[in-house]
Amino acid sequence: MLSKKDKALLYWLDQNARAASKELAKNVGLTEQAIGYKIKKLEQDGFIKSWVTFLNTLSLGFNHYKVLVRLKGIDTKSEQQFISFLTAKKYMHWVASCSGSWDINFTIYAKNMREFSDHYREIEAKFGQYIAEKSITATVRVPGFTRGYLIDEPSKPLLQYDTQTKVDEIDSIDWKVLRAISLTPRKSAVDISKEINESPEVVRYHLRKLEKSIISGYSFFFDYEKMGLQRYSVYFSLHNMSQKVENAMIQFASQHNHIVFVLILIGQYDLSLELEVPDQTILHSTIKEFREHFSDHILGFEVVQVTSEHCHNYFPFEGMKGSKS
To answer: Which residues, including other chains, have CB under 8 Å from residue 22's CB and lie 6 or more apart?
Structure first.
């Protein structure tokens, strides 16, 4: 069982996993020593599954293509082989099992439609016999919010993946730094400097540079079951839309502290609310309120529960020119 201090620590780590223990101690109301102990304990107990540095891959020219598939005639062994095949691909951003209208939800990194088509055809050639239906959408931007529900506070804007972000030229040291912290954002500048054979001052300079356009944030992935939470994606088909209405929908999401992301999409669906809730009561009340508020713009919606996450990949750059050490 998590204490209030544990939840407060998770809340602040979610906003900046690189925050110094001194800063975390001040925000949570504990000593620096206690902060270090609690972080290790949260890792050991499985509440923190892994750490992540969120990169704005959209701004780097990597489009996100979300694919939902409904399966047919597949046994448990073959489904596991399908999932293993997906998670092994370097172009895969995210893979999850679902319940509802769809069985598997995955996102592919690709620089253009042709590259996406090549990746998807590779998947279909291997497992197409099991795919009864598919839905493909492209991600335009992803506003994210703090997990206010952890401390019973309103959520606030936290990060955004967006194609409009201006990106400075990335050099070889930038790539080394990004690789070094991609899965270990709490690694110190001194430790990074030893790993990439540069001075701590150089590391700090490149981190500041990258944080202006490439690094969207530092956080972690937690175990939903241990947290007593359920993860849902609510996909909406919309019409009569404008930028003003889209902004109002994002504003709505920011005022509901169980909505952690909004996906602005193009395809079968136009928008997705990503929720983490303790039960379906909050889920249904949020959907009802959203539908009432934007009734003139909603054609339909689908609720998909994420039952298991198999893969997160926020560093799809291995093998890219200039990205090697």
So the answer is: 32
